[in-house]
Amino acid sequence: MLPGAFVKMRRRGGRWRDLAQRLGFHSPETRAAIAALPRGRMWMHAVSVGEVNVARKLIKSLLIASPDTAVVLTTTTPTGLALAKECEKQHAGRVVAIYSPVDLPGVPGRMLDLIQPVQLVLVEAEVWPNLVAACTRRNIPASLVNARLSPRSARRLRKLRVLVKPVYGMLRQILVQETDDVARWQSFGLDAARIHLTGSVKYDPEGSEVPAQRIESLRAVLNERGIANDQPVLLAASTHDGEEVELARVFQRLHATHPRLALLLVPRHVERAAEILTQLCELGLQPARRTDAATKVDATPCLLIDSTGELAAWQHLATLVVIGKSFLAEGGQNPAEAVFAGKAVLFGPHMENFTPLVDLLLRSEGARQVQGFEELAQSVDQLLHDPAATTKLAANGHAALQVHAGATRRTVERLIGSKK
Questions:
Q1: CA-CA distance, 120 to 315, in Å (whole number)?
Q2: Cα gap 326→258, rounded to integer Å
Q3: CA 195 centroid distance within chain
Q4: Are 236 and 265 in contact (CB under 8 A)?
Q5: What is the rounded distance in angstroms from the CA atom of residue 386 to the CA atom of residue 376?
Q6: How far is residue 296's CA from residue 289's CA, in Å, rounded to a whole number?
């Protein structure tokens, strides 16, 4: 897997010299920055943007609750590192952000010598055998936080029980998102006393606020491109290959009856921007690019967001949000940020990775699930014609997520307790 991972890292903006960090070798400046941190260091690992956002919420709460704590935040992807560096700037002197090491024998030990953590914190699914084993040998507690386990994954782990139980069994505690997760984690032989229900940090409304300054700066971007504040905006969030074209076709149909409607496309992988731009132009659209200040939208306003780390703020400027990877791929993307932003949310039939959240939203009439692009066009048209229904859908979704309120605080309390 390693060669492919390095190639993907390079394609997504990584540099070849960053590979040294992946092997546990760091510059004198980085080593000095880590050495300067307070001694109560936690090593927190979050693979990419979604997990780093969870880590940022935890770090903010953790540093307030435990003034003697510092965090070395590691991440795997270039986009994740860019977001982690923002956290480093926000908490200067108490957070250092670097690339995560590959899980080869000897590499985790080199990182532990450098960081000297009092605890390892793994976000969501990042349980690497060599790393966890190295911590166990040194009596460093390892916690898995915001842990999720789908029924499909649980079945797979039960089949591999003889291999996976020893690895997960080395964890001091597993902090899970949903009630059903408790039984799933126990189902392949883990000690029930180590599994605790804390709720989802990702879905916890507390700490999910986007700074008003960031929202206003992006509003200015829309204005510069020719999209006014009072125009309705359809935002497609974290789209995957093929979805941009189909959503653009939906937009073109809607534009006939909603001539002021604007479309914002936020692809999941920004390196596809040039390809998407070509596809949109072939449909007859003339999209502007977020990174090109010289381009403006035309009479069919479409803006391609070819930058990273801004999705949460962009969603505050939308009227309706459509969740990507839910139409032409399986799994879906996280709708929570759009719900936090107070927006009406729609998604396609494939939201398997977020089944508990989707069930919660649908039960509460806090989101709409459609079976295809035809039904999506009809639903968006109806909501644009009925602002009251749009407002109610958004309000129901926001209220539904209150079940996870306090998850960040409960998780931090567990981490502080495990450090003692």
A1: 33
A2: 25
A3: 23
A4: yes
A5: 15
A6: 8
CA distance linking residue 170 with residue 206, whole number of Å: 31
Rounded-to-integer distance, Cα 123 and Cα 45, Å: 6
CA 365-267-85 angle, 5° bins: 100
Which tokens hold the place of 234?
Answer: 């359809």
Read off the pLDDT of residues 226-261 as tens digits, 9 standing for 90 and up.
999 999 999 999 999 999 999 999 999 999 999 999
Do 381 and 368 form a contact (C-beta atoms < 8 A)?
no
Task: Give the residues of the chain that fall short of pLDDT 70.
Answer: 1-2, 5-17, 419-420
With 0-12 CB in 10 A as exposed, 13-18 as middle and 19+ as buried, what is 92?
A: exposed
The model's pLDDT over 75-110, given as tens digits with 9 standing for 90+, comes to: 998 889 999 999 999 999 999 999 999 999 999 999
Quote the CA–CA distance of 233 and 337 in Å, as a whole number: 16
Distances in Å between the Cα of 152 and the Cα atoms of 125, 158, 277, 329 are: 14, 10, 36, 17
pTM of the model: 0.78
Q: Which residues of 365-383 are buried (b: 16+ CB within 10 A; e: fewer)?
A: ebbbbbeebeebbebbbeb
Radius of gyration in angstroms for the set of CA atoms belonging to the chain, rounded to a whole number: 22
> Which helix (DSSP H) or strand (DSSP E) does residue 175 occupy?
strand 173-176
Residue pair 108/130 in contact by the 8 Å Cβ criterion: yes
> CA angle at residue 363 from 357 to 368, to 5 degrees?
75
B/e letters for 102-139, b = 16+ CB within 10 Å, e = fewer, are bbeeebbbebbebbbbbbbbbbbebbbbbbbbbbbeee
pLDDT of residue 152: 82
Beta strand 69-75 with 40-45 is: parallel
State residue 19's pLDDT score.
77
Give the C-alpha separation, 420 to 410, whole Å. 16
Return d(Cα 220, Cα 346) in angstroms, integer: 26
Name beta bridge partners: 71.
42, 95
Name the strand (E) or helix (H) holding 139.
none
Which residue segments constitute the domains of the chain, with CATH numbers given? 2-206+405-419 (3.40.50.11720), 212-403 (3.40.50.2000)
Neighbours of 173 (CB within 10 A): 20
What is the spatial distance between Cα 322 and Cα 22, in angstroms, rounded to a whole number?
35
